[in-house]
Amino acid sequence: MIKSVKSLTALLGMGLLSLPTLSLAEDTLSAGDTAWMLTATVLVLFMTIPGLSMFYAGMVRSKNALSTFVQIFAITALMTVLWAVVGYSIAFGGEGPYWGGLDKMFLKGVTVDALSGTIPETVFMVFQMTFAIITPALIVGAFAERMKFSSMLVVMSLWLVLVYAPITHWVWGDGGWLGGKGILDFAGGTVVHINAGIAGLVCAIVLGKRKGYPTTAMPPHNLTYTIIGASMLWVGWFGFNAGSELAADNVAGMAMAVTQIATAAAALSWMFSEWIFHGKPSGLGIASGAVAGLVAITPASGAVGPMGALAIGFASGFLCYLGATKLKRIFGYDDSLDAFGVHGIGGIVGALLTGVFAATSLGGAGFGDGISSIGGQVVVQATGVIATIVYTGVMTAVILFVVKVVMGLRVSEEAEVEGLDTAEHDERAYIL
Fold first, then answer.
1. What is the DSSP string of 388-429?
2. Could you give all domains of the chain from N- to C-terminal order, each with its CATH number?
3. Cα 23 to chain center, whole Å?
4. What tens digit of pLDDT does each residue of 177-196 get?
5. Structure pTM?
């Protein structure tokens, strides 16, 4: 029997006695987790500026290249302010099923000492801010070369508050109804990609086709930009997916592994599909395939194993190729840079296949809370997909029609012919 604190200390010092390891409190700062999340946050911002900017700007005609950079740069600034003022509160401020309320408006309570799990809440807030930045920026690809800059700013502002932030709460917020059903969306298949893809499709339909589309050739002006941008997206996406674990742990490690595997598989899948149907593989094709794989593995990255990632990658590369080429031609909409073809379709494919390959029997990490079968998980995944499609589609259409009535959406025919670089910004990326 140990009779004094002094004798206890002596025994511990000689290694003759050990105490049980005490678990840390849930909200205890981890320097390792914090360092990783600071890095992941920078990587996700890097995806938008400069990654997405270059990816999109290379695909438009030279007279619209600078305007594409400016649109995405302006979105980055505008979404940052809106997220700090109200977006973060709607997404993460409370415990309602549909929105988080306004308790955290102007970042009330997000102080230097506030924690979110094992990281500062400031870091969590900015990490989520980078998601709120890239999601509306993705939509730019659907209406490229024809929306007024002023209208774009208003549409994106309303969209963040009325569409993105509520859906974020549905999936990731405390008490969110889709999260409560057990949906698996580790890094944003519904929240980011289906959301942006459907909004982009609605934008393309409401604005109408570019002048001359599809009879006039509109080739990308600089595919070197596009491939460099896709490379930046690929690298930055590790912050997107592995960072969504919010910790430097084994799940983050697996998320990184499956992200790399799925992306490579999708790049090859698109490349070989194009080779078979078109006769030659293209740089734009393999770059688009890589992005399709990144999109599809996003919801699955915390739930599937390497072979599940391989299957998701091959499936998404092929199906997104069909969506960006065959489907667009069949229905005739002008999704300029294939925002829907890559992000909408890739997000849907990834969300549904997450329900399959999350099964432990297939190497996954298991289903959501209360779900015991592949069928049950797929039903929940499909519920999230359908809810996102319907809500985003309707709300985006309402926003567009209101802005169209109040201030117009589309540039004049003269401005479109001249190019938005000059017509909207009185500048040129290239002096001819």
1. HHHHHHHHHHHHHHHHHHHH-SBPPHHHHHH-HHHHHHS--S
2. 31-420 (1.10.3430.10)
3. 34
4. 999 999 999 999 999 999 99
5. 0.92
